[in-house]
Amino acid sequence: MKIYFAGSIRGGREDAALYLQIIEHLKNYGEVLTEHVGDPALTSAGDDGPTDRYIHDRDVEWLLQSDVLVAEVTAVSMGVGYEIGRAVAVGKKVLCLFRPDAGKNLSAMIAGCSGIKLVEYTLLSEAQSAIDQFWEESA
User: Fold this and answer.
1) Nearest-angstrom CA–CA distance, 61 and 51
2) Stated pTM of the model
3) Which of 65, 96, 102, 131 has its CA 20 to 30 A from that of 120?
4) What is the Cα–Cα distance from 40 to 38, expressed in whole angstroms?
5) Taken in order 110, 111, 115, 120, is the CA torsion positive or negative?
6) 78-94: pLDDT as tens digits
7) What values do phi and psi take at 27, rounded to 5?
């Protein structure tokens, strides 16, 4: 199983440690193609490739190779929204995790999309349980 994990990079790295914990849990189910999203050394400059075109093309290739997309969508990120839209458009299974207590509003384009399984959570353990349930339903 190939997993595409999406989380904010240029939109802010305040949840990088959380992304890393989610990625570690996802590894129980397969290969996470985008492990770098959880790297604490990755800054909001998005310095994970030599050019923006390189990053775009690499990430779209990974997205198309993946079996599923899991996204943490609490931090607003145009890139994550773009990735989710592309995944839905090509028929990937998509799980979005959102923390409503973070004081942010979730886009209606994510919350209202029938092609997305959206789970609200507070604790990491709840996100992990949502991932486990997503895999049971997807099997």
Assistant:
1) 16
2) 0.96
3) 65
4) 6
5) positive
6) 999 999 999 999 999 99
7) -60, -20
